[in-house]
Write a structure and sequence with these properties.
The structure is a homodimer. Chain A has 10 helices and 14 strands. The first copy, chain A, is an alpha+beta fold and about 325 residues long. Chain A starts with 6 loop residues before the first helix and ends with a strand. In chain A, the strands form 3 sheets. The first copy, chain A, has a 7-stranded mixed β-sheet, with helices on both faces. Chain A has a 4-stranded mixed β-sheet with strand order 3-6-4-5, covered by helices on one side. A two-stranded antiparallel ribbon of chain A has the order 1-2. Chains A and B meet through α1, β2, β3, α2 and β4 of A and α1, β2, β3, α2 and β4 of B.
């Protein structure tokens, strides 16, 4: 059936070629070959206009980010991405919008050699659900439930940039280009995640904010942590903010899509070697402990409970699983 | 993060247990074991309120149908379903609605031993995107592109029931219970699809209407067909309709989710054996030919072109891939 909304075929058929795609877009379902000895890794996330991105966001950025947030979930498992499907709900079939959306999607997909293998297009309020699939060697995936007391707690890159940009946008302030880039075109830490397989005990991507996501790891692992707030990695742009505001962005701001992970003492040497070749800073921000809960320890010896999240303007009423 | 919308955990964690689910809901991604020698089969479909079901549809039926339409895609590949993810966008977190939705989803999932392994919940206009994954023996999947001249053309069950029910609903007429059941709780023909592996050359599920879906098979296979309209399998309820109206439902009505498939002469004996044990009627409705296009041949020898689709009140502006 050819129709106005026959979009997946028209705008989304220039996928990368992969030998493991037996059948992509165009049949009832895709047919894929998972390499022998590998486990399948599957993540799904929806981005909704007015909730996960402003209504007037550039189509390129929406296409990019819808894939990025899913690749970030695969990165947090240490998986190698392979395939994606796209369920796109659109108020109208605007060719310019679609071309830009597809460009954003494909720019990131091509960078990670991800093939688009299926999809569904529907008319309705703008909403993008992407599912990505990848693989990881059997029993090697990074999970949330394997952190142990004594493990070092680390985070990649810098924290709070995306939340800072979002706050500035919402207040009508000028936003530094590098902060806006963090919000609109997050870089999933795929190669870092792969490098952490066999080294990190647990990992998660920072999508809901450091404290929330660290909390997921601690709950799943049945332990607690001491966090060193003064060591949270901070971009030059974020250094400009008043201390309290910066810290709120770093504690509670989501959308950074950095990896938060734990490394046991026996893998410190490997971690040091990884730091030599990894372009991103990998910063030790605390330590896993047996005692439940999170304690914030400052340079002057002061220990505080982490601040409660105030009104959550980032994402107040949803959860991802 | 626990919140009003922490729904996937609360309402959707009573999944069937499968040995091949290493990690289900609750981490960044699911971890799954695809059996050795099997290809992964992936389908995704979105159901949107007011488009794919009336706004006042029962939550149970929405949950059922969102999974059913995807299982139907897997059935059309001859695949064995295994896992599903659910991306649910909801205007509000109504516990009664959610319980019923989950019941509908799980009733069908349990019947096919499908485990829910991941999801995402968002606040917004009601929309349900389900992705299902299954597997099929390597190179054995039923595709659209392998029909050949001389193959018999068959369809399972009866055609036009769901479209008839939808039309009656839209006109405010009384709808027979058995027709309503076809519209609201379609039965994906999963075991039939599996039985057709190695026997059928091509298969598709009838979701967009017989002529549209047959058209997909013919286009992909590079051939045409003669169709025998008088032999289209017709339920007792549909027999009540005036001839033209019934035929329009059967030609163009979607949502039946029957399988349309082609069988070469060398597999007729197997087809006969299958008919003995398959509870659904499997009706020969035409023959595949080298000449492109579809010809409708009647008992009196008359041959006509199939009628053009009029205004498509079933699904006028979308396509699935």
């Amino acid at each position: 059936m050819t129709s106005e909304f026959d979009l997946i075929e028209r705008y989304f058929s220039r996928s990368v070629t992969r030998d493991d795609v037996v059948l992509g877009v165009g049949d009832d379902a895709a047919l894929l070959n998972v390499p022998a000895g590998q486990q399948l890794v599957v993540a799904v996330d929806t981005l909704l206009a007015g909730r996960h991105f402003p209504d007037d966001s550039a189509a390129f950025d929406i296409g990019w980010k819808a894939l990025a947030v899913n690749l970030s979930d695969l990165a947090a498992m240490g998986a190698t991405p392979a395939w994606a499907t796209l369920a796109l709900t659109l108020p109208a079939a605007d060719p310019d919008w679609l071309r830009e959306f597809a460009e954003g999607f494909y720019q990131l997909a091509d960078a990670h050699q991800v093939a688009l293998v299926g999809g569904d297009t529907t008319r309705g309020p703008l909403s993008v659900t992407v599912q990505v699939q990848g693989h990881v060697a059997g029993a090697k995936a990074l999970r949330r439930d394997a952190a142990a007391p004594g493990d070092a707690l680390l985070v990649s890159g810098s924290l709070g940039d995306a939340a800072c940009a979002l706050g500035q946008l919402q207040r009508g302030e000028t936003v530094a280009a590098e902060l806006l880039q963090r919000l609109n075109r997050p870089q999933p830490r795929v190669s870092l995640g792969q490098a952490l397989v066999g080294m990190a005990t647990a990992a998660i991507d920072v999508s809901d904010g450091l404290l929330a996501d660290l909390g997921h790891v601690l709950a799943a692992s049945g332990c607690g942590a001491t966090l060193w707030p003064e060591r949270l990695p901070t971009s030059a742009a974020l250094q400009q903010l008043p201390y309290e505001q910066r810290l709120a962005c770093q504690y509670h701001g989501g959308d950074d899509y950095e990896l938060c992970f734990t490394v046991p003492a026996e893998h410190y040497a490997e971690l040091q070697a990884l730091r030599q070749r990894e372009p991103l800073p990998l910063t030790e921000i605390g330590v896993i402990e047996a005692e439940p809960g999170v304690r914030c320890q400052f340079g002057d010896g002061r220990i505080e409970r982490p601040p409660q999240r105030g009104f959550d303007h980032f994402r107040e009423d949803e959860a991802r699983a």
